[in-house]
Amino acid sequence: MVEEKGIKDALDLYVESLEEEQKSNKLIENNNKTGKNIEIDEEVTTGLEKVRKILKKTIELICVGENVKINADPNELKLSVYGGDLGIAIGKDGKNMQAIEYIINLICKRKKLVNGTIIIDIKDYRRNRMKKIKKEAREMAKKVVREGKEIALQPMCAYERKIVHNILSEFEGVNTKSKYEEPNRRIVIYPVKKSK
Amino acid sequence: MKELLEYMVKELVDSPESVEITEEEEDDKTVIFKLKVAESDLGKVIGKKGRTANALRVVMRAASAKRGKSSIVKIMD
Prior knowledge:
- The complex is a heterodimer of chains A (196) and B (77).
- Chain A is α+β, with helices and mostly antiparallel strands and 196 residues long.
- Chain A folds into 2 domains: 2-123, GMP Synthetase, Chain A, domain 3 (2-Layer Sandwich), CATH 3.30.300; 127-191, CATH 3.30.1370.50.
- Chain A has 6 helices and 6 strands.
- Chain A has helices spanning 2-34, 37-62, 87-90, 95-110, 125-147, 158-169; strands at residues 68-73, 78-83, 119-122, 151-155, 174-179, 186-191.
- In chain A, the strands form 2 sheets. In chain A, strands 1-2-3 form a 3-stranded mixed beta sheet.
- In chain A, a hairpin with a 6-residue loop joins strand 5 (174-179) and strand 6 (186-191).
- Chain A is globular, with a radius of gyration of 20 Å.
- Chain B has helices at residues 2-12, 42-46, 51-66, and strands spanning 20-25, 30-36, 70-75.
- The longest helix of chain B has 16 residues, at 51-66.
- Chain B is globular and about 35 Å long.
- The two termini of chain B are 22 Å apart.
- The chains are: A alpha+beta (196), B alpha+beta (77).
- The interface between A and B is medium-sized, with 20 and 21 residues.
């Protein structure tokens, strides 16, 4: 079952990436005529490099004496932090990491370093949590369809909720809504009665 | 720890030269940071509904936990 889902996901991703590639190829063609394409990329890369340095210093100051390494991904505007004992920089349910991300994005906006929101991940915490959340959401959606009763998921941040709403919008037989207030805001999955 | 607060705040405000932080030891474990910024920068360190101030406190709490301490950040006006 899990494998099947994995293969289906991989296929979906592949098709998506093909479509994206076609789009971006067209963009590159268009941009090459105007000669703008390369410039934009460099701007993002140098801006992100500045943010990377600020984040590195911040994390080193929080986790004194720990080794800190940060990889920058200009495509996703993502900074991935690796190194020694960085647990405290993640915090319970990623709370400290979210605070760091919020401050870094404020600095980034104020100094106009990068256009868009920077995503920070520490020791793949966010990536692993996202994987878990997606898996759980699909399982719960199946349960909702099977049992015909609504189910509330665990509290999630805005970004995580957005992704869950997205993946479940393609899931037949369920409807999703966010309920309750931050920091307990969570998604409730409702069954949809088949009409006609 | 003071260095961390100073670093973040100075990156956030328009007048970093006006940033002043005093550190007081409440007891063995608790440190109080009193933060002063230019009046025009107060909004920047507090943020909408105090979101920035809260985020700064969360990060400072993390840093102090790493050092086996707790910290209080007071924004002076």
